[in-house]
Amino acid sequence: MNQRGQTLHDERSEHVVLAGDVGGTFVRLVLARNGTLLGVPQELARERFTDLADACGDFLDRHAAGLRVDGVSFGAAGRLQQGQIALTNGNWLIDPQALADALGLRPGRVHLLNDFAALAWALPTLQADELIAAPGSAAELAGRGRPVGPTDGNRVVVGPGTGLGVAAMIRSTGSWHPLATEGGHVTFAPETPFESAAAQLAAARFGHVSWERLLSGPGLALLRDAALIEAGMAPDTIDSAMVIDTIGRADAASIKAARSFIDLLGAFAGDLALLYEASGGVVIAGGIMPRLARVLPLEGLRTRFEAKGRYRAWLAGVPLDLMASPWAALRGAAAAYIGSAPHDQKSPTA
After folding, report:
1. 15: Cβ contacts below 8 Å, ≥ 6 apart
2. Over the stretch 57-91, which tens digit does the pLDDT of each residue have?
3. Distance between CA atoms of residues 103 and 113, nearest Å
4. Domains (ranges, CATH) in the chain?
5. pTM, rounded to two decimals
6. How far is it, in rounded angstroms, from Cα 227 to Cα 22?
7. Backbone dihedral region of 49: left (phi > 0), alpha (psi from -120 to 50 degrees) or beta?
8. What is the CB-side half-sphere exposure of residue 16 using CA atoms within 13 A?
9. Which among 230, 326, 251 is positioned nearest to 296, based on CA atoms?
10. How large is the angle between the packed helices 328-339 and 115-122, nearest 10 degrees?
């Protein structure tokens, strides 16, 4: 057995875990002890490595000197199937047994979960300075900057990016229980003439129109195409980054698309709050909304979030926040390793 393997599976008294957030472009890694991150996470270009074991080995050689690592826990951008995750936007297949063998870990010391399940695990750990209240919320109007709803209620995280991720954290019998979902693929429900036109465009291109077809990077570009068609112009199918860039140049189609995107995300977040009885709040993750917030007001988020008829009053007290923590998924992965008990120890209660 190699020296690294001996170090990794010796005594587990310190409960040090290698936590990771594995995406199509970057692999983010950090050591954690009992759910607390140790040091500054490292962001590695995925293309530099042949597989995840290669990236982990490189990180451990440089950052784990003198530490006994109990196991590894990774949130990855793909669906967990038969214990494995194939990256949705990458060519890696993450297999727990192969990873354990490569790193010299005992069986059961590799914990894999969907990236949004990792974010769900992080929700109970988020502090006030890691959340930005959506404009117009009860918390903001009260000048508190944080929610007025129950802190122990169910919570949901939703994030538009390459796709649309959704996960929930359910509170039951004094413990938190994560629920990974495919909520982004439920059928889209338009409420305005423009949203109906965008849905028709999406249907022509894809058949089934899910929320992800509109609430994602490609969805933002599709909304701009719909705005161009409405204005009597031909769609030019630019990507989401260019849509956001052209907002600053007062491009009318891009501005309309972005405002519709913000409204739709608010509407979908309100649906999620109702579906999961998320009195503890809905948190919006991902990189698109922070970029939009720099160029457009976000009032539409809260307006459409609360516009649910007879449940408007209840939703007015439900927190709606943007996640400001760049490393939440890593902390969630570290918490999941302890809370899920994927190895030979009992799961602690929250």
Report:
1. 33, 34, 70, 338
2. 999 999 988 788 889 999 998 888 999 999 987 88
3. 19
4. 3-121+328-339 (3.30.420.40), 127-324 (3.40.367.20)
5. 0.85
6. 35
7. beta
8. 18
9. 251
10. 80
